[in-house]
Amino acid sequence: MNMRKDKQQQEKKGGWLKQSSNISLEEVNNSVKIPANAGFWRKFFAFAGPGSLVAVGYVDPGNWATSIAGGARFGYTLLSVILIANLMAILLQTLSAKLGIVTGRDLAQATRDATGKKTAFVLWILTELAIIATDLAEVIGSAIALNLLFGIPLMAGILITTLDVLLLLLLQKKGFRIIESIVIVLMVTIFGVFVFEVIASKPVVADLLEGYIPSKEVVTNPGMLFIALGILGATVMPHNLYLHSSIVQTRQYKRDDNGKKEAIKFSVMDSTFSLTVAFLINSAILILGAAAFHGLGSQVSEIEEAYKLLSPTIGVGIASTLFAVALLASGQNSTITGTLSGQIVMEGFIHLRISPWLRRIITRLIAVIPAFIVTWIAGSRGTADLLLWSQVILSLQLPFAVVPLVLFTNSKEKMGNFANSNWVKVLAWIITGVIIVLNIFLVGYIIVTGHDLG
Hints:
The protein is mostly helical and 454 residues long. It has one domain (61-449): Amino acid/polyamine transporter I. Helices cover 78% and strands 2% of the residues. It has 21 helices and 4 strands. It has a two-stranded antiparallel ribbon. Strands 3-4 form a two-stranded parallel sheet. Helix 14 packs across helix 21 (422-449). The model is unreliable at 1-30 (pLDDT under 50). It is a multi-pass membrane protein.
């Protein structure tokens, strides 16, 4: 039995090692079984879940201020940017899921296979920086929400956020289904809050719908262009691509071509649905900013400002409180996926396996420590700057995730019959080029001017 297992692990096909992903034995044992002879909807709900974990990254606290500022300054015009960015994200997340399903390797493992140990180590460092940068946004967002809801000082709020890693440890022992269910509940909470907020703000529907039509003003107006760059630049999070390619393997399905084809179909449906919900939430944030603050002469660029002005502006007393509740839910959601991503890239790039509780605590503390120090020294203004530079780090890391993903999924040698079709190849490279160019502009602008896009 052991000899057969060793042989299977060493067997190669097109340069890929045929072995399981870096998901732990405990997680595999708790993975979701796919019923073989079930109907369409039963199979869909069995596969559903990973998409919700991925969608969390698209509605994290780091995106809120930019969307609110965009709506407050330019009305509904930038809704078209959110739509285009979401379509880009759907394609890239589809490629990520397909990579994991077809090869049995997540993006981190696949990159190590293709580059070697030394390059993989460098890429691991860069990816860890991006995950830390992402986690910073979640830590700060959760701390701000606790401050707004309960008056808890930012420093104390940051310390409190370290405790949620212990909750994650407990939940993961129960299986991925529990984590996915909690994430879905939090996403529904955020969605419900913003549906209420948008209705209460009474947007002009005709103007709202017109905002989804691309306008040349987005390019010709410098201020609008830079906020659009901020929206696009923060859309595809590099850690989401590593995460998705791994967690799709928590489903137990036949690993033959028919089984993989079915898994890809349902995974694409799952992620597309979840990202559509994320798109609606992001749209709602910008719509709220436009309906509540545009034309009033207020330059709302920070979350705290939006919280203070929201209830008085739209005349609904509970609006600000619900806004903060949604922010807290967003921070907690993103915390879960950020911590899972840290595990995946550590094991995928450098094959380092340490105790799960230690790995998660390390990942969390590395993000909490700089947030705590900056808040202690510079206060709330310092946390705003920290959020800004966390986005810069994410932008710099993005090409190192997107380019390998497109290369791998385009390769007939690596993917066999599941390689991207010609039109998908062209579209994927166009999207990759657009993302890279826009991120270069975004980072260059921030570095040169020394301030955010607001």
